[in-house]
Structure formats: structure tokens, C-alpha cells
Amino acid sequence: MIYVVMGFLWMALLLYLVMGGADFGAGIIEMFTSDANKSRTRKTMYNAIGPIWEANHMWLIIAIVILFVGFPVIYTTMSTYLHIPLTIMLMGIIARGTALTFRSYDAVTDNMQLVYNKIFVYSSFITPLFLGIIAGSAVSGRIDTEAADFLSAYIYSWFNLFSIAIGFFTVALCGFLAAIYLIGETTEESETKRFIRKARFMNIAAVVAGGLVFIASVEENIPLVQWVFGNIIGVLAVSFASISLIVMWYLISKGKRYIIRVLAGFQMTMILLTTTYKHYPNIVILKNGGYLSLIENRGADKAIEGLGIALLVGSLFILPALGYLVYSFQRKDKGDVVGH
């Protein structure tokens, strides 16, 4: 049953990266959109993220519950030593959702709309930035459970070049995902070309940020190159991601709008597989060579068994409901989905 739980944890993280990432990326795209085009961008954005908006954070909640119930030592360590970036990320999620709701449903149109817009776009950037920082910190080997001072325990654990580089890489990936999804929602050729340019820009940004991640890993003696290229799975995943990226841009040039979403999701899967396979199930790497493992640091067998059964049974309800949610939004006219 432990492997069932581990599988659900990995899938929850992947789905949050793909679906939540595209959601956050919509705000990032809006941030880099001119004032003249922002209104059209928002309308297209609502149509694109509407079907998954309400369900996105479900995947994050599932991941947190799995860690809390099944792996309390890992949950406690991360929530203690990474509580600052975790708090900022959660505040970003709350601020973003609140701002989007108010700017969509506020009955009065005044200067507060400008405030809502700024909160929405800035929190859309900050949230994935700190999500990436948390992910990078977990494997950076900077978490010091024996730290004797505040800075060593709660600042240097995440405030380092590698973790910050991962954060910006995550932001670029989210923007890229959103641009790809937005291409499929456009109806005018000029709008399609505009989002293709956004996707190209975010693609370049992701490549640059990815290069910075590798540079940072070398500077801070993190064996990222070995994790990625030191095993056949990592090499294959990188190869498949690269090939699918080429195919995706070819299909974009041919006007294919929907298959490119599948390819973008596939690329995120390959990236996550590449960066986690080598050291999995050691999802937290501590300072001085220690680590926390999903196998060795799991909870009581009864807790794991009950958690696994709950996840299996829950998926029988959640997945069909999510499918119906997407179906119901697809049935609506796009003009009716402005407020989702």
C-alpha cells in the first residue's frame, strides 16, 4: 500500500504543476501584456482556466494531506524549516483567488479594479516562484535540522542560488503552459499569433532559467547533472521532452490547437520525472548528507493502509466529477464563461 500512496503523491504534485501551473501562468502572461491587449487577454484567460479553476488547489491539498497523514516526519521537517516560503506561497494563493473573485464579481467598477488586477498578477508570479523555491530547497541539502541560530535554520535553508533558480524556472514553465493553453482558446488569427509570441518568449525564458539551475547546482555542489544524466530514465525523459517540444512547435506552425496542450503536459511530466527519479523516494535531502525517505520515514502501517484505501476510493468520486466539470464548461458558449 505504501507504493499506492507514493504514486498518488507523485501524481498530485504533477497535476498541480500542470493544471495549477497553467492557472498561475495566466496571471504571468497578463503581467507581460500591454494595457491595450489586457482586456482581450483576460477574456481568453477565463475561457481557458475556467474548467479547472475550481479544482486546481485540490491537488495541492491532497499532497499536503498525504504528507501530514502518511509521512509526519517529512511534513513536520518541511513545515518547520521552510515555513517562511510556505507561508508566502499560501498567502499568494489566497491573495490571487481573492483578487480574481473581486475583479470578476464586484458590482462597482472603480479604481479598486486596478488594485485587484495588480494583486492578481503579482501573486500569480510570487506563488509559483516560492513553490519552486520550496521544491528546490527540499533537495538542495541546505535544510539543517541541527542549526543553532535563526538564519541557518529558517533562512539559508531556502534562500540560496539553487532554490531561487528553481523558483524562476517554475515561473517560466507556468507562463509557457498558460500561453500554450491560451493559443487553443483564441478565435482570431491576430490573437493566436500574439499568444504564440508569448509562448515563444516563455519557452526561451524557461531554457535560460533551466541553464541557471544547472549553473547554480554546480556552484553549490548539488549533483543535479548526475540526477538528470546519470541514469537511463533521466536521459530518456530529457530526450522525449526535447523531441516533443520540437513536435509541438511544428504543430503550432500548422495551426493545431489542442494536441499541443497534451504535448505541453507531457513535457512537464518528463521534467518532473527527470528531476525526481534518481533520488526518489528521498524527497528531502538534509545538510551533511542526511535525507528523509518516503519508505524509511513513513507513518504507521495502519495509517498508510487507511490512507491508501481512502485515496483509491476517493479517486472513484473525484476523477469522474472533475471530468464532468470540464465537460460542463465545454458545453457553454465561451462568451458566457467570463466570470467562471
From TrEMBL:
GO cellular component: cytochrome complex; plasma membrane
Gene Ontology molecular function: any one: electron transfer activity
TM stretches of this protein: 6-32, 53-75, 81-99, 119-139, 159-181, 201-218, 224-251, 258-277, 307-327
Biological process terms in GO annotation: aerobic electron transport chain
Membrane topology: Multi-pass membrane protein
Domain of life: Bacteria
Location(s) in or outside the cell: Cell membrane
Keywords from the named record: Cell membrane, Membrane, Transmembrane, Transmembrane helix
Main location: membrane
InterPro entries named in the record: Cyt-d_oxidase_su2
Pfam families recorded: Cyt_bd_oxida_II
The UniProt record lists the keyword Ubl conjugation: no
Family (UniProt): Belongs to the cytochrome ubiquinol oxidase subunit 2 family.
PANTHER family per UniProt: CYTOCHROME BD2 SUBUNIT II (PTHR43141:SF4)
Name recorded for this polypeptide: Cytochrome D ubiquinol oxidase subunit II
